[in-house]
Design goal:
The chain contains 25 helices and 15 strands. The protein is of the alpha/beta class. The strands form four sheets. Strands 11-10-9-12-13 form a five-stranded parallel sheet, sandwiched between helices. Strand 14 (435-436) and strand 15 form a beta hairpin. The longest helix is centred in the C-terminal third of the chain and has 28 residues, at 381-408. The protein is globular and about 60 Å long.
Length: 534
């Protein structure tokens, strides 16, 4: 083991910074027109006053979500959306659900930043900026993005050293977790993939022997849990498996409870098992640890299928719309009918031609993704994937899933890869230590670290992720899912027979769950969330 005493010393020296970054401590600031005139000075690195203007920053590490609500005479800002929505509800100004946000969730399983499903509620992520100004007594906002992890911005001058990478990761973990966060009910979501396995290694390096690592398992197999168990045994950590074959009524009760306290819907396919894992781990409090957050600066390398879709994407013009009418929603050919930006998004979700059949207010969201991608269209597929798309997917789908699951049981979120010092070191490594453009292999120094200090061979283990058979889950809970979809006030009366037909078809075409799962999750959220129409 290396660096554990150094990591603990660094943590103690940065205690004040840790308190500022931990997302368990919610804060809220209300900026009124009068306060802007009086040159409000706000502490912290999320809101800054230049004396003539106020700028709100997204957190460039990706750890802290920044939400803001634009009212007619004030802007309310918080790092915790439930806190912000509760404040708006107390003031009698709860925001309404907007059709464009609903359409984005149905079409792409996420709402691109800075939008959310709520009107006038915005989510600032990596590189996002909101500039506030007065206009006739009202507060106006101009949004922009200055994405910090463009490849050409990397200095490329850090010395590659897997021991240094491990030290940074261990320091980041200890800083976020804090001195009292090393015991149950805190736990690591361990898929046995490279990223979560690296966090497990950092836990062992930090001296957190016996720390619980949780892997969920459905009926698709036991490979991920087997790799995770072997890793924990080598590192001296405790491994637990959460089986998802719970009684249907128990699962359904957990989901209703989850939706009731969720501030936003999330279309991530792992949101359901995440919520079930958090529910099954018992008492409230502690933290949920996750290995997400490094693709933005380590360099996401797309697979061959994604590269093919990006290269031959036609866009969403008249020809694409005509061809779409002849294809099933689950057809892989639909990827080629999207814009380049939208073609790189995961899942085979509904198209506008599908959603108009049951959602009269459906908006064609293709123009939004064309606009997102236009500025980056001259980049190669690696540069393109790491800029407009990684920005939205990482924040509005993957990180959102973790935050919603943690909020479900009053837990903090610990994302060790979302750390300024770790990012500064890793992003500024030579490109050859981050990814290989020829072999399309990424996280090269991370791979070396895992082999050297954890006996983890990425090539032998292969790509691991939490398995979740969404089609079998929906069919197993068919009556419950159909009831939630039918009851949702967003859809018109045609949704009942359409959903029943889709479920019957899913028995033969299982990939239809890519469309039906976001529809189900959005319906359940809208039916039960206390933040809808409060």
């Amino acid at each position: 083991m290396i660096g554990a005493p150094e990591a603990r010393a660094a943590t103690e020296a940065r205690a004040d910074n840790a308190r500022a970054d931990r997302t368990s401590e919610a804060w809220l600031v209300r900026l009124s027109a009068g306060q802007l005139r009086s040159r409000l000075v706000t502490p912290g690195h999320w809101i800054r006053d230049s004396g003539t203007a106020v700028r709100i920053f997204g957190d460039d590490t990706g750890l802290v979500p920044i939400y803001l609500h634009r009212g007619s005479d004030a802007v309310t800002v918080s790092n915790h959306l439930p806190t912000l929505l509760d404040e708006l509800g107390a003031r009698g100004s709860s925001p309404a659900v907007k059709a464009r946000g609903v359409s984005h969730l149905l079409h792409h399983a996420l709402v691109p930043l800075p939008g959310t499903i709520f009107r006038d509620v915005h989510f600032l992520g990596i590189g996002d900026r909101a500039d506030l100004a007065l206009d006739g007594g009202a507060v106006r906002i101009r949004f922009s993005n200055d994405y910090p992890y463009l490849t050409e911005r990397s200095a490329g001058d850090r010395t590659p050293d897997s021991s240094v990478l491990l030290r940074h990761l261990t320091t980041a973990l200890t800083r976020q977790l804090g001195p009292d966060g090393g015991h149950f009910p805190s736990f690591l979501m361990l898929s046995a993939g490279k990223d979560s396995s690296a966090v497990a290694l950092a836990l062992a390096e930090a001296g957190r022997a016996g720390f619980p690592c949780v892997t969920f398992r459905d009926d698709e197999g036991d490979e991920a849990s087997r790799h995770a168990r072997d890793l924990c045994r080598r590192l001296g950590l405790r491994h637990e498996v959460v089986d998802l074959d719970m009684a249907p009524d128990q699962i359904e009760a957990i989901l209703v409870e989850f939706w009731s306290c969720s501030a936003l819907p999330c279309g991530d396919f792992a949101q359901i098992p995440y919520a079930l894992c958090v529910a099954r781990t018992g008492a409230e409090g502690g933290a949920v640890l996750d290995g997400s957050g490094n693709d933005a600066y380590m360099g996401y390398v797309p697979g061959w299928g994604e590269r093919l879709k990006w290269r031959f994407a036609l866009g969403s013009g008249a020809l694409s719309q005509l061809l779409a009418r002849r294809l099933s929603p689950d057809s892989g050919w639909n990827y080629f009918l999207r814009s380049r930006a939208a073609s790189t998004l995961p899942g085979r979700t509904f198209r506008p031609v599908d959603t108009r059949s049951f959602y009269p207010e459906s908006v064609d969201t293709g123009a939004d993704w064309r606009r997102i991608g236009d500025a980056w269209d001259e980049r190669d597929v690696i540069g393109f994937r790491n800029t407009p798309v990684e920005h939205h997917v990482d924040q509005a789908e993957i990180a959102l899933k973790i935050h919603l699951a943690a909020d479900f049981r009053g837990r903090a979120v610990v994302l060790p890869f979302c750390d300024r010092e770790l990012i500064d070191y890793t992003f500024n490594l030579p490109e050859s230590s981050r990814f290989d453009r020829r072999s399309f292999t990424n996280k090269l120094l991370l791979r070396e670290m895992l082999e050297r200090y954890a006996g983890y061979d990425p090539e032998a283990v292969g790509k691991q992720f939490f398995p979740f058979a969404g089609d079998r889950f929906l069919l197993r809970h068919r009556a419950f899912a159909l009831d939630e979809i039918r009851r949702c006030r967003l859809w018109d009366a045609r949704i009942g027979p359409l959903a029943e037909a889709w479920f019957r078809r899913m028995e033969r075409r299982p990939l239809l769950y890519h469309s039906l799962l976001p529809l189900f999750m959005l319906s359940g959220w809208h039916n039960h969330s206390r933040y809808v129409g409060q």
